[in-house]
Amino acid sequence: MICLGFEGTAHTVGVGIATSEGEILANEKEVYQPDEGGIHPREAAQSHSDNVKEVLDKAVNKANIEPEDIDLISFSQGPGLGSCLRTAATSARALAVWLEVPIIGVNHCISHIEIGRFTENVNDPVTLYVSGGNTQVIAYDSSRYRIFGETLDVAIGNCLDTFARRVGIPHPGGPRLEELAKKSENLIDLPYSVKGMDLSFSGLLTEALRKYEKGASLEDLAYSIQENTFAALVEVTERAVAHTKKDEVMLVGGVAANQRLRQMLDLMSEEHDADFYVPPMEFCADNGAMIAWNGLLAYGAGKRQEIGETRIRQRWRTDEVRVPWRSD
Ligand code: ATP
Ligand code: FE2
């Protein structure tokens, strides 16, 4: 069975093609780059609708299939920015109706986990999902992916990007801050952001910006922001590992590109005798292949949807989804 999946929760419009035998035939994408400032939802959606046909053509050509070979369409139904989700959902519905094949909306956060389990051959990890729009520590228990901890305000990627933007570094700022951080070892005091099992980054962001105005160097601030926020992320992940006694840890999302975060999680995992995994960045950042793969899993487990049930779900939480393709 061949599934074509549309991703469109935020910056990325992606089309992935996967088979139920476990082959990724294509994974094409186009990433919206704001001219200035952060992501503008309407402009991102406009960019997605400008690009989706080309991305779709590229994916179908790369997979070397004919449209009639497609058996199933999936799409990112949520969570995400309404205008972007709507663009991907509309493309998915149009194609499903035209091809007369079933359509399935999948949860974007869960797709991140499932593609990682698939590419890294991981069984039952505690997952740290960190991106521009999401920050969650997730693990499977009793038919659902449970959120063990999450940000109470901004996502870690958003925190890094906003700081960067405010000091004149263009979007996305995460990678530039990582480079700057390598040039310092001077830890500046910033508010530590663990609250119970949850995280909060907005106070730290304000304080880092205040210290910048007062003359702290960008290198020192980049280093201190990373050390501080990553320690908080690792602390919550560690507690989830200790509680669940799972012996696999996985890092996914765009911020997974960060080598320092990987190093800290790797160390923590080692201390708990857990194996540590990071999927290749092609599958870590937002992509269509993870949506296609999740569509196949859901369809294989018997999930069916009418077109009327494909309305987008902007605030669809990870733990609202039953995952019948996994057994307890
Ligand atoms: P989502 O819809 O899942 O929230 P997204 O639109 O934010 O995703 P991703 O590609 O998953 O897209 O993640 C992008 C984020 O990753 C940006 O915030 C970017 O700054 C961050 N990022 C990328 N590389 C690095 C890095 N080396 N260090 C830190 N952050 C990084
Ligand atoms: Fe994502």
In this structure, how is the largest beta sheet organized? 5 strands, mixed
Rg over alpha carbons: 20 Å
Small molecules in complex: adenosine-5'-triphosphate, fe (ii) ion
Helical percent range?
40-55%
Spell the H/E element sequence. Answer: EEEHEHEHEEEHHEEHHEHEHH
**Structural class, please?**
alpha/beta
Count of β-strands: 12
Note the beta-strand portion: 15-25%
Strand order of the largest sheet: 3-2-1-4-5
**Number of alpha- plus pi-helical segments:** 10
Q: What are the segments in which pLDDT stays under 50 over at least 5 consecutive residues?
A: none
Distance between the termini: 26 Å
User: Roughly what is the average pLDDT, rounded to an integer?
Assistant: 97
Overall, the morphology is globular
What this model shows, in words?
Helix 6 (202-213) packs antiparallel against helix 7. The protein is globular, with a radius of gyration of 20 Å. The chain has ten helices and twelve strands. Helices cover 43% and strands 20% of the residues. The chain is α/β, with parallel strands linked by helices. Bound molecules: adenosine-5'-triphosphate and fe (ii) ion.
Keywords:
binds adenosine-5'-triphosphate; 5-stranded mixed beta sheet; globular; alpha/beta; 328 residues
Nutshell version of this structure?
The protein is of the alpha/beta class.
Topology of this structure?
Blueprint: E1 2-7, E2 12-19, E3 23-31, H1 41-63, E4 72-78, H2 82-99, E5 103-107, H3 108-119, E6 126-130, E7 135-141, E8 144-150, H4 156-166, H5 174-181, E9 194-195, E10 198-199, H6 202-213, H7 218-244, E11 248-252, H8 259-271, E12 275-277, H9 281-284, H10 288-300
Helix pairs in contact: 1-2, 3-10, 4-6, 5-7, 6-7, 7-8
